[in-house]
Amino acid sequence: MTATIIDRPAATGHLSGLPVLGSLAEVTSLQRYHDTLFLRVSPSPDADRVRGLRDGESGFLLPGLPAWSLRPEEWWPAGPRLWAARQLVRHGYLLSGGKGNHMWLLTGDVVGRSADGEPLVAGWTPLAQVAAEVLAGAESEYTAWRYRSVC
Question: Global pTM?
């Protein structure tokens, strides 16, 4: 892991104890060190620990935290960087709506799937916060890749 990832403290807020990743390259670098790296969008790891998580329809307590894998699926030919960009872009909408959500990365064990199909991660450890500007870079890269054959 590079020193820039470890030594850069989060600026403010509920994620103040986590390092901040400021680029898609830093996210991809962290992927190399953790086979089970997941993306979570929520107010904070502390908030998730305190409130626990329930399925929205049934009210049942979930056995783990819903998150999205940053490890590319076997069928994905475009590599880990574009897979990470895709995951960030696909879930970036969760940052809107005034809920105070942030993107952060965690590791842990998959113990099941949510009703919507996301992995449920138990025994999780937060690793880093993803800076807002990373989403803009991911959108640019992923959009360019998606339209590569059109241009």
Answer: 0.85
